[in-house]
Amino acid sequence: MNIVRKDKLSDEEQQALWDGIESFTQPIVGDTGRHELAFLLHNENAEVVGGVQGNYDNFGWLWIDSLWVSQGARGQGFGIKLLNQIEGTALENGCSHSHLTSFSYQAADFYIKQGYEIFGKLENYSKEHSRCWLKKELALHSE
User: Fold this and answer.
1) Cα–Cα distances in Å, from 63 out to 58, 66, 86?
2) Which of 22, 42, 52, 63 reaches 20 to 30 Å from 71, CA-CA?
3) For the chain, what is the largest distance between any 2 Cα atoms, rounded to a whole number of angstroms?
4) Is residue 143's pLDDT more than 80?
């Protein structure tokens, strides 16, 4: 046996970790399932200027890993639209809750305005900033 440092996992290596965790977890709580979700925002030149990605499981939880909108596309409601897309798709697939993490200097306030609440915080994670864990009960969005 040997331990090898990796700066980035291949898809196969990441899948091996997930499969290993699933094989341990399944006898205890059943099949967790893992369904990837991603929505990209493209400009008129087909360049990616935003997106959201995450996954949901068989326990009814959506995990939002990343949401980003480029500086030039901010302030036009695209962040809310991307968030609504991923939440709505998760809701359609049986999810009732969502969770994510953000830094106090990033988008914590944005998520709070969208109905998320902070349930955990590490103060001074980066100098005077905090790392926040947020959750939300999902509901149908009216557009």
Assistant:
1) 12, 9, 10
2) 63
3) 55
4) no
d(CA 39, CA 44): 16
| CA–CA separation, 50 and 48 (whole Å) | 6
Structure tokens, 105: 């200097």
Model confidence, pTM: 0.84
**pLDDT reading at 80 higher than 90:** yes
Residue 45: pLDDT above 80?
yes
Assess contact for 74 and 68: CB atoms under 8 A: no
> What are the distances in angstroms from CA 100 to CA 11, 64, 66, 137?
22, 5, 8, 12
pLDDT at 141: 52
CA-CA-CA-CA torsion sign (73, 70, 39, 77)? negative
CATH number of the 35-137 domain? 3.40.630.30
Cα(94)–Cα(99) distance, rounded to whole angstroms?
15
Residue ranges per domain, the chain?
35-137
Average pLDDT, the chain: 92
